[in-house]
Write the structure tokens for this entry.
Amino acid sequence: MNAELTWQQAKAHTQAMELEIAALIPKDAVVSIDQKRKGVLLSCNKTQHNWNASTTVTVAEGTKIEPIVKDIEAHYRSRGLNVSADTDVDGKLLVQIDPPAPGENYLVGGGVKSNEIWIDSGSPCFTLPDGIYPGGDF
């Protein structure tokens, strides 16, 4: 954990990682990338929070999502990150990428629509400055 990390730095780092993951999707399949500008803070513990949001990548109709998610899984496994795979409630492949920073994690899988890949993110943990309420949008 970086005790000096601000929520703004954590957000910027996490959004950059979302786009890094999105860049692994074949360019000819990508129709659009919609990265949320704002997210929410969730508690890591009694004194720290992490920033959470998501990016949705819309791909061309007929694109097979699971092989793309498997390629993303393999990419991060080969980089030595802790990666696990499971299925979501709809039976779609869901990959969790856990970098070593406490609180930081990314979920990658099929989106709500059949032509979407969803990247959910949580930043490394950080301490908010005194007087900053953790509710609302960040």
About this structure: The longest helix spans residues 7-22. The radius of gyration is 15 Å. The chain has a mean pLDDT of 95.
